[in-house]
Amino acid sequence: xxxxxxxxxxxxTKEQExxxxxxxxxxxxxxxxxxxxxxxxxEIYGYLPIEVQKIIAHEMDIPLExxxxxxxxxxxxxxxxxxxxxISVCLGTACYVKGSGDIFDELSKxxxxxxGETTSDGKFTLVDCRCIGACGLAPVLTVNDDVYGRLxxxxxxxxxxxxxx
Amino acid sequence: MYRSHVLVCGGTGCTSSGSAQIVEKLESEIAKNxxxxxxxxxxxxxxxxxxxxxxxxxxxxxxxxxxxxxxDIPEIVSEHLLKGxxxxxxVYDETVTDKGVKSLNDTAFYKKQHRVAxxxxxxxxxxxxxxxxxxxxxxxxxxxxxxxxxDEVIQTILDSGLRGRGGGGFPTGMxxxxxxxxxxxxxxxxxxxxxxxxxxxAFMDRSVLxxxxxxxxxxxxxxxxxIGASQGYIYVRAEYPIAVKRxxxxxxxxxxxxxxxxxxxxxxxxxxxxxxxxxxxxxxGEETALMxxxxxxxxxxxxxxxxxxxxxxxxxxxxxxxxxxYANIPQIIVNGADWFASMGTEKSKGxxxxxxxxxxxxxxxxxIPMGTxxxxxxxxxxxxxxxxxxxxxxxxxxxxxxxxxxxxYDIEIDYDNLxxxxxxxxxxxLIVMDEDNCMVDIAKFFxxxxxxxxCGKCTPCRIGTKRLYELLDKVTKGQxxxxxxxxxxxxxxxxxxxxxxxxxxxxxxxxxxxLRYFKDEYIAHVVDKTCPAGVCKDLLKYVIxxxxxxxxxxxxxxxxxxxxxxxxxxxxxxxQSKCIKCGACIEKCKFGAISKK
Lengths: 165, 597
Hints:
The complex is a heterodimer.
Chain A: H1 14-27, H2 34-45, H3 50-60, H4 64-73, E1 85-90, H5 93-96, H6 100-111, E2 124-129, E3 141-143, E4 146-148, H7 155-162
Parallel strand pairs in A: 1-2
Antiparallel strand pairs in A: 1-3, 3-4
Chain B: E1 4-9, H1 12-16, H2 19-32, E2 39-44, E3 56-59, E4 63-65, H3 73-83, E5 96-97, E6 100-101, H4 108-111, H5 129-134, H6 139-147, H7 150-160, H8 172-181, E7 190-195, H9 204-211, H10 213-227, E8 231-236, H11 241-256, E9 261-264, E10 269-277, H12 287-294, E11 318-322, H13 323-335, H14 337-341, E12 351-358, E13 364-369, H15 374-381, E14 391-396, E15 402-405, H16 415-420, E16 429-434, H17 439-453, H18 459-476, H19 482-498, H20 502-506, H21 509-517, H22 519-526, E17 542-544, H23 554-558, E18 564-565, E19 573-574, H24 584-588, E20 594-596
Parallel strand pairs in B: 1-2, 7-8, 7-11, 8-10, 12-16
Antiparallel strand pairs in B: 1-3, 3-4, 5-6, 9-10, 12-13, 14-15, 14-16, 17-20, 18-19
Helix pairs in contact in B: 2-3, 6-10, 6-13, 7-8, 7-10, 9-10, 9-11, 10-13, 17-18, 17-21, 18-19
């Protein structure tokens, strides 16, 4: 899913590029620096479009296909921009046995998108995740950094309403 | 000196339920009442009773407040801290007796626990190295560097009987010994810490990192001295932001105090630690994949041998231990191998931390001596299963493990006993399931996970798990035959025997163990086309009991598929060919007339 081609035009700024090059320069000599650099790059741009991968390939002098290979291997890296709010439903075991699958389905239905997709207004991205470790609150979902626990399907509307404006 | 200390849990569980706001409010209320010089607020790691979060303990009384809300804080400050009157309505009810409030350590949840790895969790402020040192921290590193030879350190760990807590159970001392001796003239060696806790429903390592990060640093330095390494790496999940932050703080503080870096304790021993963040790949919990990932590559495993002790990170001799394993090391050094070996069973020494989750009252973190009965963990410590439901099975080892059915409820938990019944210790996730959970569905759930997380390098795992998932999907949809069950079993063994790494080799375990103990449930799906637990949607049939139905029409109006027919005040009927089994009717019926079969 992460490898899907991005349809949104790249709009990176000069400042972002300068920041990225700075990060690369400071990490370049570390052993195994690619992962931390990709993580920082995603922090700067919010995602890792091919344009950003090319900058990294050029600056680090490693082949683009290696960077693409790493960027598509890990689920944390995304080649597509995310919505303003990322709703992440925990489908870890503890949440799953307490019904988080139904909550995910309800969100998918309400938002009209599947997992990994973003609503057409760029507002919500729906993803599933494997255990954020708040199993005591199961079932759990997060909207960006906000955590909602002990949920039922009926709570979905209320949570979406909070981010409606 | 402060006369009172207020400990607030700052672990992920309690932070998720708002403990950060509670700390803020506490501090402002304490200042407002002019108590800032008398009362100190300490943000600690996890106390373990996550189900009751946010949690707060006030010392010296040891009063345990649970499910505290921000609005409760003014009352706690003015009543308890100012006037010395306990706010009884907020106290954990287990601690309340006829004779007043009893100590937390006497409650069912804590009484049978024995905290070694979690010793400091919920006790000290993890962001302050002095509190760690104050509880004996870095004493073991000092002892090792000034009084012991590397071989003596390794012998102590060997004698203690400590086995890898990440799930494999390999003797830790043996691992160290190999790394020390196998390539005697290596110019560089590495010590790695596996904090890529990917098993869903497990959060032991996270709690140690959040509650007591220095213990891991200290143990890694000890390991570095023992095998002759000067560099360590901690590979931690990026999904654990609090743990990452506290590790960063801890590493910086340890460097400032000269406990990491050059010439530690003036002994000429150099050791430093770097942090590497995972990026969401379960396979990176496998040791060779983890090292490949630290090297900056796709986290794919490589064949063994050569084992990491010979050729690991960057091609150098490397040891990799799990967080909880490290958390035991300093105390083994300080208290001696015999002390550690006195706990546990013959072949499994010490204690084990479990993350209790699922259908259990006290979800949270517990540490018990090896050999404790499953029944004790679930019924006494865990408080049993909520809503009067019956215990069906406990799942350990996550996607690599299996289930423990009711017939083995009295099993004594240790590495070998669990393997003997087709499960495994795993890293410590323990998910309890009751009669409402379908075991075929659970097996399918775990397979969906492995299909997702298989790295794709080897065919048996990449394609085998996918085919296995499809067969299980057929079962849950009532389309499978009895021959398919044989095919499932055959495929399981094929994947186990031919996969490259632990992920594939253990992926069929949830299927094999549910087939072993719950075959009748599989057969019910195949032959009778029913799901006994009422989970598998395709096999459910919603029916209205005509005797109970009052004809209120609520269900018919609720049905999104228009599958319910009937007139006002007459019993309704569900047209099975139209029903999409969403369950909307059952939720709305006020008379309990609708049931699923």
